[in-house]
């Protein structure tokens, strides 16, 4: 056995250049070949611990001084990788997954048992098929370990009943399935993946045998130094293809596959691979034969810095042999949890004629699908706090996709699925811009300019000095953030949202957010709400919610049943942040004016719910209340764009125009053709041929309304008092058109207590349903069974409307506010408690230019989103201690601060996808850690609280 001791290292005094001394510089190409064999033995553990770096140093030094040696070593590395990719002996040695399944559908009144044993496995991982469906509790599948100990029991109709991964220690598992004689279903299928120990069969080989076999560790030692010396496009093409193949080989160790993927990224995204012309490769088409070539799925590597690893996507379906060039590489789509010890299904792949770069093309063309699949799997685990960061595998994938600018081409028709990726790409490019001091991305600059335009006072002109990296260098940014963090009172930064907010009506529980008095009869400024500058206000049963421009939610009012989403509090009288979702960007909150539960819609199209859970209206599969927001898992990935709450049911619209409803089914309010309660969101089948654009849910004996993009309004549910708008009091259990509103350009529908409201594009208001308390605004308390235009608003263009339980409020294009209906709590704002029969101008708000209104059960709000004349003071001067900033205009400092805020928000939203620690200077990807001093503290704190670091 070769022995190279520490004494064999080259003395520093003898090193002349490139790691070579006077002796080693005389080594020839043949000598270098001998050294390669010695290096191969060294990396296999056949020499001392210093042998590998010592020999590597000499070989790389020879390559730098001798182009012939460089070419020989590069060719050797490429050949070694190609041989490793086609090493059938290694492939055969990898134990394969085992599939177990029932018949489909499964048989009644049976008891089935089975055993899976994979010799040599340290543990077994079980993944269930997404189609799994058995009768809950009556037809259970029980998984046991080799000793018969029960590990888990699975049954149910929903994917959430089966989705949790199962791991079993040892190389054996047993299962038992029992069914009764009642309703059955599709059945079950699961795949058992062996988690193998990191064995090293090469330890069993002789030196001669070892030298004859491919060893990926060899190019791992040499290739990084050889890449800058490689100029031949043919060699680079072969190298990229062989790396792509190795990245997909489960017979390789995790570190080897990750090295292959990272090296490939370095080649295709830097000047090294400029000769490859990646864009041309991706647009080319290839002819193929039918000769299969083996390949293996890749898996994500563990996050070393956190000592945690993410599980794999939950299903792994190999493509058919007919899937020719270039399919999305199943190798990526089937990535598993930790590369430490994993095995995957063998995928048939087509050998390509005259296209040696085909593995690279296949991998890159399949990258979007692989990335999306991995994100859909990992994201819930990271969001839920089970893992702090995304897997290293995912980070390499998303970095490669960003470097290839795939964000410009993905997501046609399903943009909601790619919103997170586009945010990451912008953040990554801004990081690079700030580090390298190059031009900022155009889209990022446009967003910052939009924020600034919303901040500027009248007459103030926007300048662009804040984008100038010569004016603002890194040390300037650091001082500016230091000033902001130490003396935040010097700065007033806000954009978007409202001007002054006025509230009135019922305030017994503090639902007006800081206004004094239990019954407020006149519009009163709400200073605490105004300070938040919300982009949305909405009220429920003695509650109020505010959504700010940066996606945070604040709640105030009555907290019974957890309806505020801030825990088990009785009530709060000032807006309180919903901390559990502060790391998530919320675009909208929905709550019925008489409702005790809420929905929140995120920027990514996910939905959270909280509050009372009766009738399953929270959508979590049960009737349990939740006093903090919880993700509705059934709606994940559906790209929700609109949400609505009733008193006992909920609704959501997807980007495709699909309508989902859930909760109490009585009177057919869910639109599924029956009166059954639904504990999880269910598609309204009757409307699948239409595109739904708005929805509203009523309270009590409730109705549901929606608008479709063919200019029709639909209603269903309870029909009492004619609130369905079709002329009678009959209810219906599926959506039916309201003929009186067809082709009227209806753009908004609302539901109060036993009545309905519609707003047209031209600004006309229609009401119908129960008429007492004058809630319809027609001048009488008669019930109205078909939509009727509110004549008192004739000639006015209404732009915003809201309904309370028994009253209404609207505002016009002239900035005027009108109210009508019940007034027992002063909710109409006329200083009395007398009901108003027809819309009446709120005199106290004249001249306020109101363009938004909102209601709760018996409280009302109005505000303006117009630009303020003044946006707050700038500092009078730069403090002496911030000397680098003293020559920069104060308005430019403010603008740069807004830019840094926006940058911080972007980075911190994607922080789990970045490497926070630099492993080496040559590592590809954005070096976020270098910018830690210019990330705004509030954004950083929010991100790390979410991740569990603090």
UniProtKB/TrEMBL annotation:
Keywords: Repeat. Gene3D superfamilies: Regulator of chromosome condensation 1/beta-lactamase-inhibitor protein II. Residues 493-699 form the RCC1-like domain. RCC repeats lie at residues 499-550, 551-604, 605-656, 657-708, 711-762, 763-814, 815-866. Residues 316-329 have a biased composition (Pro residues). Residues 311-338 are annotated as: Disordered. It holds the Pfam family WD40_RLD. InterPro entries: RCC1-like_dom, RCC1/BLIP-II, Reg_chr_condens, Signaling_Regulatory_Domain. PANTHER family: BTK-BINDING PROTEIN-RELATED, INHIBITOR OF BRUTON TYROSINE KINASE. This is RCC1-like domain-containing protein.
